[in-house]
TrEMBL record:
Biological process annotations from GO: defense response
Protein name, as recorded: non-specific serine/threonine protein kinase
Transmembrane parts of this sequence: none
Positions of the Protein kinase domain: 83-366
Entry keyword set: ATP-binding, Kinase, Nucleotide-binding, Plant defense, Serine/threonine-protein kinase, Transferase
Lineage of source species: Eukaryota, Viridiplantae, Streptophyta, Embryophyta, Tracheophyta
EC number: 2.7.11.1
Organism: Nelumbo nucifera (Sacred lotus)
Pfam families for this protein: PK_Tyr_Ser-Thr
Binding-site residues for ATP, renumbered to this chain: 122
Biased composition (Polar residues): 44-55, 366-388, 399-412
Family stated for the protein in its record: Belongs to the protein kinase superfamily.
GO molecular function, one term: ATP binding
């Protein structure tokens, strides 16, 4: 599987983007490692809905979704002020994301500053692979609706032009809040809120009538609304889950180094538990304030999982890896519960990782009033004990993923 992605593939962070939107650039001669979408939002509290996702669906069936508006290229030029540079929100390997305005009722292009703010993703002409991922995103987000999935409003397919129109996400990506220089540190309560809402999105996908494996769960694909509710974006790599008595689907290895599950990297066998591993990595990023892969560090510290795992099961040592920007303002037992949960998600054996519904339930216990207070020992002790009793507790030894051995590009 090592040849599935070109070893020279790189994922760089786009540092030049103004405001909170940044996207990852991806270059590869073979498979794309999913450029991170940094789009979109206004908070929608619609009920979670999903129709059965019959496969395969033809391109015509996908694009005729009654939930999506087919925009003309001229309409989107007008909505974004002709894609002017001062409307640019972010740039990635897929192309550019622009801020635009549309009428809330008619969805027609509106005067800048009036109507509803949207994010318009304009793809570069990438050939078949780019179009395939664009169509995959339209397919899934055209049918799946949940408060923790970014809302796709419409698309444009006109000649070589392929664009997507999303709700606008005012707080940008989790990646920016955790790692961008000068960003305000996120409090413990906000980090848990983000983890919970992202877990709700993943859990919804995994428990849908026809299971969806997200395949690219990472900090740059988690977008935040004005209240720091997380929504999953960029469904270009999403895959239908196994059916019948199958435990996995076999597919080409695609994703982002540092976040991808070791068994998927090694064999191409993809399951919902692959997403659970990726969630564990992001949970570690929330706890430590460190990137999944950081080439500016040396030795074992370059890979977050390798560096952090010896500390996750030790209450007395856990503080050594906690984000210093928290300045100690977090409940120690709550942090230990989250660290234990991350350890379970990062188990080398996919089958012993918890389901996302279990992950979500554990995280939600951390948000109870008692658990937001550092001194609330009795309730937090109960939560810790419930995690400790789990049969998964001993499995916190993820496979070492060295950048040179992995077919996935490094994160930066």
């Amino acid at each position: 599987m090592g040849n599935c992605l070109n070893s020279s593939a790189k994922v760089e962070n786009s540092q030049s983007v103004q405001n909170t939107y940044a996207t990852s650039k991806v270059t590869s001669k073979t498979s794309l490692s999913s450029a991170t979408s940094t789009l979109t939002v206004a908070s929608h509290s619609q009920k979670s809905t999903t129709e059965s996702l019959p496969t395969p669906r033809s391109e015509g069936e996908i694009l005729s979704s009654p939930n999506l508006k087919a925009f003309s290229f001229t309409e989107l030029k007008n909505a974004t002020r002709n894609f002017r540079p001062d409307s640019l929100l972010g740039e990635g390997g897929f192309g550019y994301v622009y801020k635009g305005w549309i009428d809330e009722q008619t969805l027609a292009a509106a005067r800048p500053g009036s109507g509803m703010v949207v994010a318009v993703k304009k793809l570069k002409p990438e050939g078949f692979q780019g179009h395939k991922e664009w169509l995959t995103e339209v397919n899934y987000l055209g049918q799946l609706h949940h408060p923790n999935l970014v809302k796709l409003i419409g698309y444009c397919l006109e000649g070589e032009n392929r664009l997507l129109v999303y709700e606008f996400m005012p707080k940008g990506s989790l990646e920016n809040h955790l790692f961008r220089r000068g960003a305000q540190p996120l409090s413990w309560a906000i980090r848990i809120k983000v983890a919970i809402s992202a877990a709700r999105g993943l859990s919804f996908l995994h428990d849908a009538e026809s299971q969806v494996i997200y395949r690219d769960f990472k900090a740059s694909n988690i977008l935040l609304d004005a209240e720091f509710n997380a929504k999953l974006s960029d469904f270009g790599l999403a895959k239908a889950g196994p059916t019948g008595d199958r435990t996995h689907v076999s597919t080409q290895v695609m994703g982002t180094h540092g976040y991808a599950a070791p068994e998927y990297v090694a064999t191409g066998r993809l399951s919902a538990k692959s997403d659970v591993y990726s969630f564990g990595v992001v949970l570690l990023e929330l706890l430590t304030g460190r990137r999944a892969v950081d080439k500016s560090k040396s030795g074992v510290e370059q890979n977050l999982v390798d560096w952090a795992k010896p500390y996750l099961g030790d209450k007395r040592k856990l503080f050594r890896i906690m984000d210093t920007k928290l300045e100690g303002q977090y409940p120690q037992k709550g942090a230990y519960t989250a660290a234990t949960l991350a350890s379970q998600c990062l188990s080398t054996e996919a089958k012993v990782r918890p389901r996302m519904s279990v992950v979500l339930a554990t995280l939600e216990q951390l948000q109870t009033p008692h658990n937001t207070n550092k001194n609330s020992r009795p309730v937090q002790q109960t939560v810790s004990n419930s995690v400790r009793r789990s049969p998964l507790r001993h499995h916190h030894s993820p496979m070492n993923l060295t950048p040179s051995a992995s077919p996935l590009p490094s994160h930066r």
